[in-house]
Design a protein that fits this description.
By secondary structure, the protein is an alpha/beta fold. Among the domains are: 34-119, Orthogonal Bundle (Arc Repressor Mutant, subunit A); 208-376, Rossmann fold (3-Layer(aba) Sandwich), CATH 3.40.50. Helix content is 48%, strand content 10%.
Amino acid sequence: MAEPEQPQGQQIAATSPKKKKPHKRGRVRHAENPSGGNRPYPRVPLEKAIAVARAIKEKNGGNPWPASEVANVLGVSAKGVGFTYSLLSSKKFGLTEGTSARGQVSLTELGRKLVYSGTAEEELGAKRNAFLSVPIFKDVLEHYRGSKLPEMQYLSNTLESKFKLRPAFHQEFSELFKQNSEHVGLDSGTDSSQVTDPTVRPPEERGSEVIVLGEPKNKTGLVCFVIIPFTEKSGLYSAGFFSEVLNTLIIPAARNAGFEVKTANRQGTEMIHSTIVNEILDADMCVCDLTEHNPNVLFELGMRLGHDKPVALIQAEGTPRVFDVDNVLRVLPYKKELWRTTVQKDLPELTAHIQATWQNRETSESYYKLLRSAKSDKKLSSMSA
């Protein structure tokens, strides 16, 4: 006699359930990018990344070593996210190879130079090279001509528009950049040209009073010198304002107009060196920012005008007039907010202003010629009276 069929529900219950794949926890990719997108910089400070390289040198003679042993020396869990970040950061700084907690970690050539350096100068040089091996650190350092960053409202505009860094990372990046800069001895606003060689003398000792900021897209042989305040003294503008004007407005506009861009390098001094004076007088073109009526700026402008050389005048909107200048020459205003949208609008206008000043240098009445002609007219009037 045939056995009765089992109810359908019992058949289902008797079927072995499919095993679910275990969920992978703590994947670094998600922890590394909580808001989407990649961090283009190590999230662990250089000082902690160096600890990975030192552990290999001091406890294993500089030979490749299992990551678990490195973690033991550092006193952390090899399976922890923090240790994984340290391995990733050490690799991004160019000090070690190997980022798997189950694999081996080995010193790179740079890492070996750092941990086996014979002098403090060699060690500092290796640290600075590690800092520069991260492209965004190097680019930001060059962009601001040193390690001093502007306030976050200006910094964020540049980080997003020029360096394509997501806003969620701006504060973290700023803190890491400052921390790393201090660790490699760049916390005082050192010129970026000194980074790779710790034995380089300060600017005032090596005669680098003038620095080149940008090259034109097409070589023209023309030079534009920028006359601009280097610090904000009136209290109307936040720290870093003029650095942002220089980098986001003046340099791109002058390059677009076909000029190599130079300015004074006044790291730690407000002195006007003879080199600067000669550059101001010899440059084919000058751009002068009258904002804040800075005494050095007005003095340098006076020298330029006294030699009857073309100069494009600009100033932030709301700047009081300089009576002797504003009544004679055109001064182009720019938006002082320096948002990305305002910069996009002001940049082509400034480019056109520089080009027009240069193209009309022979035909238009210069400040010097106008003053001289006014004197001649006054003489003729008195003679005919």
